[in-house]
Amino acid sequence: MVLHRRSENVPPPGDCGIGKPRRRFFGAGEMDLPETKAQPDFSAAENGLSKRGPMFFSPAVREPVPRQNLRLAEIDLPAAKKCEKGKEWQGVYQTIKWEGEERVAWIRLNRPEKMNAMNGTMQAELMEAIKRTKRDEKFRCLVITGEGRAFCSGADLTEMGKDLDYGEILRTAYNPLILELQSLEIPVIAAVNGAAAGAGFSLALACDLRVVHESASFHQAFVHIGLIPDAGNLYFLPRMIGYAKAMELSLLGEAVSAEKAVELGLASRVIPAASWEKEIRDFAEKVASLPTRAIALMKHCLQKTFETPLPQMLEYEAAAQKAAGRTADHREGIRAFLEKRKARFSGR
Fold first, then answer.
1. Three-state secondary-structure class, residue 271
2. Do the Cβ atoms of 266 and 239 come closer than 8 Å?
3. What is the gyration radius of the CA atoms in the chain, in angstroms?
4. DSSP states of 216-257 as a string?
5. What distances in angstroms separate CA 5 from CA 12, 19, 36, 306, 317, one per listed residue?
6. Residues 103/139, Cβ–Cβ less than 8 Å
7. Is 161 helix (H, G, I), strand (E, B) or coil?
8. What stretches of the chain adopt beta strand conformation (E)?
9. What is the spatial distance between Cα 112 and Cα 151, in angstroms, rounded to a whole number?
10. Hey, which residues does 210 pair with through a beta bridge?
11. 188-192: strand order across its sheet
């Protein structure tokens, strides 16, 4: 659907894919697209279709990701099986807790005795819980946090064998998980209740917002075992804090305190221990009360910012704004402004 007329000197930005089926990703080197490419298509948002269709807000890559690398590793889940599309989860989670409230879904990493280290079962259950949240349109915010004194201490090294192909583990387990998390159109909050190290740091970075417990800390720990940051870490981190600081944290592997994380721009706020649970819930409810479809469009456009030339970015903004302007929440916002009252957004 062509949403606007484009002048001859503005290159077409390509198909944005809001509410569309999954498709290949386009990188910075592919932005000069031929005239036959479509304009940004936000028709799903305009027509009121599902606000959590299976599209990706993906990190840019220069080549299509092979199909076989987008499959979650086949993992036998104890006492439960991965649910089929369109059906609710019927089993019992072993390594996480999932909780659905009125507008907010919660995922709690639940291996406190291992500082919530991530093993194969947790990867599979996280993927399933994210998909479960995506399927239910009543949820307008997702919170990910940890049980015990850690958020997530990274991969469980005690469950890894010798001579592993780390690249294949990333391609079949961690990378699909990060992409699935990024595909959520609702805002995702990392409530970092303790240490976030290695892949746990990457998981927090993949969320839209990070709020931190006063005792929380971030650890770019890969260098200490002779590895590089992964699971999207090297994509997200320099975009948040700049190349120089990202290099410093990656090279030295030093811990970042809660206060320092806010100073660097890694986190939004520090919450005292005494009011942690209440403030997290209040914050999540505040985020869930915002205009959900406008947030989805913001996320989509912001994901493109670093690889998109200004003329194309202006076109994306125009197309997204047209879609946002046709939502019920926009109409409610205008009415509330004229009536001098607080808007009551419905997420539609």
1. strand
2. no
3. 20
4. -EEE-GGGGGT----TTHHHHHHHHH-HHHHHHHHHH--EEE
5. 11, 22, 14, 24, 14
6. yes
7. coil
8. 96-100, 104-109, 141-146, 150-152, 188-192, 195-197, 209-213, 217-219, 255-257, 269-271
9. 9
10. 190
11. 96-100, 104-109, 141-146, 188-192, 209-213, 269-271
pLDDT over 90, % of the chain: 69
Q: For the chain, what percentages of helix, strand and coil (3-state, to nearest 5) are there? A: 40, 15, 45
Edge-to-edge, what's the strand order for the sheet holding 255-257?
Answer: 150-152, 195-197, 217-219, 255-257
- Cβ atoms within 10 Å of 112's Cβ, excluding its own: 14
CA distance 283 to 141: 10
Half-sphere exposure of 94 (CA within 13 A, CB side): 15
For residue 122, which of 104, 141, 143, 107 has the smallest C-alpha distance?
Answer: 107
163 in helix, strand or coil?
coil
**Secondary structure of residue 152 in the 3-state scheme:** strand
Gap between the Cα atoms of 203 and 124, Å rounded = 14
User: How confident is the model over 66-82, as a mean pLDDT?
Assistant: 35
Place of tokens 């971030």: 218
Query: Which of 54-58, 113-117, 135-139, 257-261 is least confident?
Result: 54-58
Q: Dump pLDDT digits (tens) for 192-238.
A: 999 999 999 999 999 999 999 999 999 998 999 999 999 999 999 99
pLDDT tens per residue across span 133-163:
999 999 999 999 999 999 999 999 887 767 7
Model confidence pTM above 0.70: yes
CA-CA distance, 186 to 163, in Å (whole number)?
39
Q: SS in 3 state form for 41-80?
A: CCHHHHCCCCCCCCCCCCCCCCCCCCHHHHCCCCCCCCCC
Q: How far is CA 281 from CA 168, 186, 191, in A?
A: 37, 16, 10
